[in-house]
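Milestone M4 deliverable, item 7.
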Amino acid sequence: MFALERHRVIRNYLLEHKQVDVRTLTELLSVSEVTIRRDLEKLEEDHFLVRTHGGALLIDQHIEPQLNTNRDKSIEAIDIGRTASRLIQPGDTILLLSGMHCLAMVQALREISPLIVLTNDLSIAIELGNHKNKQVVLLGGDLSLKEMAVYGALTLDDMKRFHVNKMFVTIDGFSEQFELSVSSQEKALLIREARHNTKELIILCSAEHFNRPAFYSFGTAKSGDTIITDRKISDSVKQQLFEANLRLFITIDIYEGPKHG
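Output delivered:
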């Protein structure tokens, strides 16, 4: 089979399934893993997919431009986002606040329904609005063109009206004292308000942000909170989190092979 024909098959598979692993493609196309990885590299150059650890994900036209243009950070965001999505069950009511990891969760939520999603992010609301069996509620407020999200006094007041099972938030800093922080005052205020109305806080944090606080604090991580990060997290930080009774999920094993059963 010629390369162009393999690319067509891979494209069609991703359009239907949204993700694929290398082993599945080698069996489907009867070629070596080296050939498949070369095909995925070419399709990534064409901005059709993003390669992951052991496979690839379809790039969404609404999501891709807003993820970091650095390939490693894009993969990291997607991995953390997809790991976070595994904590969501049909029937949940969730809050997704503006941030690259929450944005990366959107594609993985397609198969989870019914679902009620509250958000302040326009891109998240638009994309999830195209999914079946999902109720999407966009908070009111002043639009930040930089983030394409709403903040301000109206957003804070609106947030008081809602209660969610799970709240997902991307943070920019996690200090040695477990203080949580972000780079925006408006976002810090919204997170602080939202914590009053959620049963479970799920913190999405790149490993590089541990022990490096950002400018605006919104509180501390508490026993029972959940943290999702990437495989670059140090053993010393992992030990600190375990000792504090914080639930920790790491993306290290997410795309290492096909799922069976």
